[in-house]
């Protein structure tokens, strides 16, 4: 099973690899001036982005953002709700859970159960179904588990594996459609290695599209490692297609939309973009039960904190 | 002592007051269509903003943002590093700690100690000095504690109380100066009540300034309650000046800047904006010691998670 965010190597080897990749990336002109030096060989304060990834706050990143915001093509609509809910993953292996948290809050989904005090709000620790939080903390979640969790928490999903018959043009159309809305988010499941980044399997939502440069804005939740960045659509397409030896299928993408009802909320397109070929996956029985909502509301009678 | 984020009433009365204020705000045209209805009388999924606060993602909010980004006055520079690190406060009373976390990461301060795995990164739980986390979770932190924590963690601070001799013009100049930089952040400590919002004492960083409309963008970390919003500079000025009966001084603002050295990092201007009147406050002995940094780095030898 694919396990995004999971370290593929033991700590020593992983750190050695991180250091080697880091040395190769030090010359990156977008970020070299603005990041402090690494202060110890065995811990890290962020990473330098590879050359092809343009940091959101760099001069070129700001230029791309301003051009995209001002474009008549209107592919920065989804930026606003996502920017409102941008978060840092609360555990190093939580990229999938944190990306989903961010998207559910951006889509204004009411979790129907308490977070803290009297507030109903999505946070990673609320995802107590499809897989256990302890397992997710250890090895991350797969794209299939991501879809299960999304369905269980009130959104429709449409999942695509980046197989050979899934084309760059189809991918671009999906990105354009999503980015021009306020209510549909594309989450990529991809290999960082293909982008020249350290680590491997990862999830990121697409926060906007620059049509003239054919680049997407990745709102990467591993903010302790990399800032949000612009990257060529064709590069992330290749990063979705990459199949690691331990997997027998490529990664892909999941489209999230608000769902009025939970039943039959999923379609996974593994060999075609033809929606008629969809194979619905039923929500897990562990998820989102009315009784858990009611129980959470009873807890709301306990003293509340302000904000 | 002033205690931002602290609930002023017991749970039942607080909830009743929240409901009353909520009913008064339901007519807000910026957000009424986009927020789901409250699903239980004793718990909440967000709040409607009062009329004078314009939600970032609303049509008018997007218009203000685009105008400000395109303005030659350049007062949206600080938006980029802050947007990269926008967070939700992890506890209902953590508005001060979470705002500081966001600002330290936006200023690219290296905490010099581990967060999780091999990563050095600011998160609320790292603020283990100036006040205890248990106390902060119960009653929030004061502006004085905010300044102490900022100094202990490597930034210079300049604090202003909004006394009668602190003028709107001085405030506007401070905001303009900060918003035109990438390296200086203004954090407001203010009363939500004056803005027509539920709750009272609160901290928010200013994420940009619209000169023509004379409005600031508040990147409010209580995102489970209110989205980021634009509000008139004169309104937040009044919200800083408001003195609650239990306090004998107004709230105010803190300017944060990266500090090369920690000693004598603070100046609090309680009666004048004249910097020569500064009364330096020494960092607390509990904070940011080299030994704790070294200890944290030793922990980094333990197995690391990927991201």
TrEMBL record, chains A, B:
Residues 39-261 form the Peptidase C83 domain. It holds the Pfam family Phytochelatin. InterPro entries: Papain-like_cys_pep_sf, PCS-like, PCS_N, PCS_N_sf. SUPFAM superfamilies: Cysteine proteinases (SSF54001). Residues 24-33 have a biased composition (Polar residues). It comes from the Eukaryota. Its EC number is 2.3.2.15. GO terms for molecular function: glutathione gamma-glutamylcysteinyltransferase activity; metal ion binding. It is an enzyme of class 2 (transferase). One of its GO terms (biological process) is phytochelatin biosynthetic process. Keywords: Cadmium, Metal-binding, Transferase. This is glutathione gamma-glutamylcysteinyltransferase. It comes from Phytophthora oleae.
């Amino acid at each position: 099973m694919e396990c995004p965010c999971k370290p593929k190597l033991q700590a020593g080897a992983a750190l050695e690899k991180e250091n080697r990749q880091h040395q190769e990336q030090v010359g990156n002109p977008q970020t070299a001036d603005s990041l402090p030096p690494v202060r110890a060989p065995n811990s890290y304060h962020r990473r330098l982005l590879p050359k092809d990834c343009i940091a959101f706050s760099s001069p070129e990143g700001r230029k791309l953002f301003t051009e995209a915001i001002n474009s008549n093509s209107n592919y920065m609509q989804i930026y606003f709700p996502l920017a409102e809910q941008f978060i840092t993953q609360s555990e190093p292996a939580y990229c999938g859970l944190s990306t989903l948290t961010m998207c559910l809050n951006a889509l204004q989904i009411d979790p129907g159960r308490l977070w803290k005090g009297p507030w109903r709000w999505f946070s990673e620790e609320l995802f107590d179904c499809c897989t256990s939080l302890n397992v997710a903390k250890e090895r991350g979640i797969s794209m299939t588990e991501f879809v299960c969790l999304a369905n269980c928490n009130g959104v429709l999903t449409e999942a695509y594996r980046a197989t050979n018959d899934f084309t760059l043009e189809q991918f671009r159309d999906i990105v354009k459609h999503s980015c021009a809305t306020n209510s549909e988010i594309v989450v990529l499941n991809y290999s960082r290695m293909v982008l020249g980044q350290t680590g491997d399997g990862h999830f990121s939502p697409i926060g906007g599209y620059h049509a003239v440069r054919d680049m997407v804005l990745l709102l990467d939740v591993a903010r302790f490692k990399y800032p949000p960045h612009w990257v060529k659509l064709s590069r992330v397409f290749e990063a979705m297609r990459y199949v690691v030896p331990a997997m027998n299928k490529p990664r892909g993408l999941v489209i999230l939309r608000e769902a009025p009802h939970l039943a039959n909320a999923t379609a996974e397109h593994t060999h075609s973009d033809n929606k008629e070929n969809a194979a619905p996956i039923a929500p897990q029985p562990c998820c989102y039960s009315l009784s858990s909502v009611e129980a959470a509301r009873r807890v709301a009678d306990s003293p509340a904190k302000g904000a």
